[in-house]
């Protein structure tokens, strides 16, 4: 999705992230396939836990994937392009950096890091939803 896409009457990254924040706060028993514009979080993951997070990546206006740094438990610096929205006000969002556990996106599990960043969503032009999943500790 880009800033100029009029798909589903959602025309920018800011609106999509606001919608994701709203659906993460709603408890429902519905299950749907995952994409950024689904109004509910998807079906249970392979651990039987109801998803509580819509994992997504952001793309800069130059088309590059956005990465944020975080510290691993062993104090090594790491980067991740995966986020969970914690809150949004206007187009200012608090995003929690998520770490992909394992190397295979087809069987991925995400871990919430302690790193949160504040971003201006107007600075991004693309968003890609990865999956709806249960992230412990959020």
TrEMBL record:
Which Pfam families does the annotation name? Spore-coat_CotZ (PF10612)
Key words, A-Z: Capsid protein, Virion
InterPro entries linked to this entry: Spore_coat_protein_Z/Y
Name of this chain's protein: CotY/CotZ family spore coat protein
Q: What is the lineage of its organism?
A: Bacteria, Bacillati, Bacillota, Bacilli, Bacillales
């Amino acid at each position: 999705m880009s800033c100029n896409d009029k798909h589903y009457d959602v025309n920018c990254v800011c609106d999509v992230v606001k919608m994701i924040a709203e659906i993460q706060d709603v408890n429902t028993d519905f299950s749907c396939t995952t994409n950024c514009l689904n109004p509910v979080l998807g079906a249970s993951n392979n651990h039987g836990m109801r998803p509580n997070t819509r994992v997504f990546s952001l793309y800069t206006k130059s088309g590059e994937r956005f990465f944020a740094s975080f510290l691993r438990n062993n104090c090594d610096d790491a980067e991740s392009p995966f986020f969970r929205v914690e809150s949004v006000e206007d187009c200012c969002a608090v995003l929690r950096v998520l770490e992909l556990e394992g190397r295979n996106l087809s069987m991925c599990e995400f871990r919430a890091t302690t790193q949160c960043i504040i971003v201006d969503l107007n600075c991004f032009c693309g968003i890609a939803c990865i999956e709806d999943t249960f992230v412990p500790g959020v």
